[in-house]
Fold this sequence. Notes:
Layout: H1 20-43, E1 53-58, H2 66-78, E2 84-88, E3 99-100, H3 108-111, H4 113-119, E4 124-126, H5 130-139, E5 144-148, E6 160-166, H6 186-191, E7 195-199, H7 206-211, E8 215-222, E9 230-235, H8 240-249, E10 253-259, H9 268-281, E11 284-287, H10 289-292, H11 297-301, E12 303-305, E13 308-312, H12 315-329
Parallel strand pairs: 1-5, 1-6, 2-4, 2-5, 6-7, 7-8, 9-10, 9-11, 11-12
Antiparallel strand pairs: 3-4, 8-13
Amino acid sequence: MKAPHFWSAGLDPKSREAAPLTRALLTPLTWLYLWGLRRKLASAVPEHAPVPVICIGNLTTGGAGKTPVAEAIRARIMARGVRAATLSRGHGGAETGPLKVDPAVHTFRETGDEPLLLAATGEAWIGRDRPAAARAMAAAGAEAVLMDDGHQNPSLHKDFTFVVIDAGAPFGNRHVLPKGPLRETLPAGLARADAVILMGDGPVPAEVTASGKPVLRARLVAAAPVAAGPLVAFAGIGRPEKFFDSLKAAGADLRDAVPYADHHPYSARDAGFLRALARHEGAALITTSKDHVRLPAELRAETHVFPVAAVFDDPGALDALLAPLLKQAQP
């Protein structure tokens, strides 16, 4: 789904751009959604996994940088001798799991794009049933489970939860789905978190300060040089504009940029359009690592990738939060 424009921050709530009538009509659906979520959270009895579970979640529908953060924390844990593996739901994939993802065997149509991306640099699993997946992972030798998303899923007990927030666009219009991008109210979501990871530059949101939770700063940095020459960029992620801005900041000669909805499955028609646009601009195509795994094979071969990695401003602060969990994980 592509985020509606009225979800954006900074709009005059009474202006046409902010769609006040649409938001008013959606209010009953927001109430219904919140009622369902609160009921689910209140009635759940979370199952404890045999190994520590660390959740990397968020409060909005996407675009905060959650998956690169999960990848970075997994690497940090692995460097300390603890076998860590990520666990994703497998959004958009046909497999239900528990399944260990193999990028040499599986495609995004089976596992979803984010697990496939995580599997390229470490151990990654999918599982619609999170407790069953965590049990399978522990049985296979995993010593720590990193949930990529799942802050609003109460089925599996979390030993520690990080909430990832985009400092540049933290909460959109601050309304809950479907009136806005929030998955739940801010006080409720922050109350269940143990720490906040604020991505990029921007002030600490007042709600985060009021929550009293520890705040870590991190940012997405280029993991490789940007391709030379004229480029046409495209992306189907939570905030495509963020990717386009990062290309410009890296010095890319960007001639055009095409946004798609998050998790967009690229078709032959999309490939034809993008190729034609690139030819018109005399440019090459470039996209994100997450989008690259969803491309048809031919288009994938001729499209550049601009990979990014999450880097923490104070890695020591992250280590201090993880230390008690790693002691549990070690035999």
